[in-house]
Amino acid sequence: DQQVKQNSPSLSVQEGRISILNCDYTNSMFDYFLWYKKYPAEGPTFLISISSIKDKNEDGRFTVFLNKSAKHLSLHIVPSQPGDSAVYFCAATFSGNTGKLIFGQGTTLQVKP
Amino acid sequence: GAGVSQSPSNKVTEKGKDVELRCDPISGHTALYWYRQSLGQGLEFLIYFQGNSAPDKSGLPSDRFSAERTGGSVSTLTIQRTQQEDSAVYLCASRWDTNTEAFFGQGTRLTVV
Fold first, then answer.
1. pLDDT tens per residue across span A75-112
2. Half-sphere exposure of A101 toward its Cβ, with a 13 Å CA cutoff?
């Protein structure tokens, strides 16, 4: 049972354009969501998060949008840079003591110069 | 320490042997997670420790896998009688609280030959 899904395995965009990475979840009890970036041979690094009480969180070039009714979140990167090329994972968790962190399958982003 | 530390970084073992993978979380982090990433796959949840609570072992793929966390700090993931399908990158992450980001180590690349 895949509770967090990233249905696009890969995405290719031109440098300077917007990258939009999507994530869907099935458990309505999730209330905290995170995006991570992973380069080959490295551990994932945290990018940005959002609590379920918000619908948008912005940090520099990165913005995460949350649509609770659709159980959908997205990560926007603008403008995209070649250094953004990596695998992006979304993750969801429950606040409180049951803080199990569930990841999607990942989307490989390629930003072409 | 400054970050999550995992050892060894690489491990090659013969099929049928036991292996131990170590994770040193960030000091003070109460939550510790183990994941694995097989080739071309996403982050598969294995086990989660939260403070003094009983660990969530729901992701362990078989009874050959076990993990412990001593003194609420260092954790060891043990795989008994390794099989070729156990070959993967094993990632450890720690987290201060359930509404904060998790920090990952660099991972241990396990190869079973």
1. 999 999 999 999 999 999 987 656 788 999 999 999 99
2. 29
Cross-chain residue pair A46–B102, CB shorter than 8 Å: yes
E strands in B25-69: 31-37, 44-50, 65-69
Cα–Cα distance for residue pair A56/A78, rounded to 1 Å: 15
Q: Is the CB of residue A96 less than 8 Å away from at least one CB of chain B? A: yes
Alpha-carbon span B42 to A73, nearest angstrom: 18
A44 preceded by a cis bond (ω within 30 of 0): no
Greatest pairwise CA separation for chain B in angstroms: 40
Closest CA to B48 of B3, B79, B94, B4: B94
Q: To the nearest whole angstrom, how far is the Cα of A51 from the nearest Cα of chain B?
A: 8
